[in-house]
Amino acid sequence: xxxxxxxxxxxxxxxxLNDSYMHLAIGYFNxxxxxxxxxxxxxxxxxxxxxxxxxxQIVKAARNPMAVPRIREMARLRGSQARVWAKEDDDKAAGxxxxxxxxxxxxxxxxxSALIGLSFLGNLDSVYDHSSYGDVRLHTVVGGPRQxxxxxxxxxxxxxxQLWMFLGYDENGLDRATVQTFWKxxxxxxxxxxxxxxxxxxxxxxxxxxxxL
Length: 213
Prior knowledge:
33% helix; single chain; globular; alpha/beta
């Protein structure tokens, strides 16, 4: 699984303030867990063991003393790639693009790839001052998570005293029935964890599956 970490705590106050409310200051990291289940094992014990393992990896990534230098280097590489892709798009639009020659050596593929992305914003009630809106009652926040092609992204946050969860996926790269089965089982797990009787509302959409708990 891949996820993101917010960099606001690392930013200087004068650098965090600007004339725009729109900004992006995040870094990425991976959470790595086994992709198999032992034949003879207690599934509940395995679930909680892997949940704790994921938690430890997330905390380690966020608090690592090398986090900022690593993210700066990542930003430099991503910026360089973005400029190459932008020039390629411009050349294609102008009809001057020439495909690069094939590599002399075969490109080595990574041993594994992430199956799902995780984006947990936390409690957004601490971001919005509800009392400042007068008679207007805030009940919903619509986010715009970035999702790679061929992948899935589990996006969640707490707002107006409720836990919101979204599952976005590439419908051109993944089987809809498989995704819906995963989502159904995931919600069943959430109900179990939040205890039976929790209020759950499911609202399917064209580009995402949503649930409010």
